[in-house]
Amino acid sequence: MSEFEGLYGIWLREFKVFQREKSRVVSAIAQPIIWLFLLGGGIGASIDTSRIGNVDYQHFLFPGIVAMSTMFGTVFYGLYIVWDRKIDVLKEILVAPISRITVFFGKVLGGATDAMITVFILLLLGVVLVGISPVGVVAGLGIALLLAVGMVSIGLTLGAFFESMEGFQVIITFMIFPLFFLSGALYPISGLDPVLGTAVQANPVTYAVDGLRGALIGQSHFPLWLDVGIMLLFDAAMVLLGTWAFRRMKL
Questions:
Q1: How does pLDDT run across 19-72, given as a tens digit for each residue?
Q2: Distance from C-alpha of 112 to C-alpha of 127, rounded to nearest angstrom
Q3: How far apart are CA 75 and CA 111, in angstroms?
Q4: Sign, Cα dihedral of 185, 187, 191, 194
């Protein structure tokens, strides 16, 4: 078996699992839409639109909701590592004549593919329900892909060190909510308190949200090259960390 065949086999397995879990697809799409209309309609009524570029809050919020869907749909992907270890599937995969790096990349591709299908459907709904420009959908998919790769890698890295699903969920929840709430997904990042502003700018997810906002509604705080550049550095760092974790992973 070649490394490419192994990579394809692992990706195909993850994709088949995703196809069987139709409830997961429905919830991944329904939850962001609920957030958009409940949060966007409720809080949006009290928002000063001059602070968010003179657009209604639902338009401003939608890129953040896309980022949220991408994050939550990918970072918990590490749970599959913990589960596969429990039922000894991971052991069978790791004794195959392919490297652990190939296993890692196969799972990253599988998780990113699943996320992109969900994001694509969400973006199409955004065009219909929110009035997002169709032109920005392709660019939005590209930025969401960068975010997905980084977040899948984080989930797989943590999953490689946990044997308990409960322990993994506690740690990942503790990490994911600060990343989301400090990303500017729900509020503009200009004019923040210096301490909060520093934390927001140190968060790599901020640049994914900003890039999505620029692609989908034409508003961004940072130049696109900076958003993309930081996301690429974030992905590279997380992939390196993930491959290291998989080499050290014990069965």
A1: 776 666 777 777 777 777 777 666 666 666 666 777 788 888 889 999 988 998
A2: 22
A3: 9
A4: negative
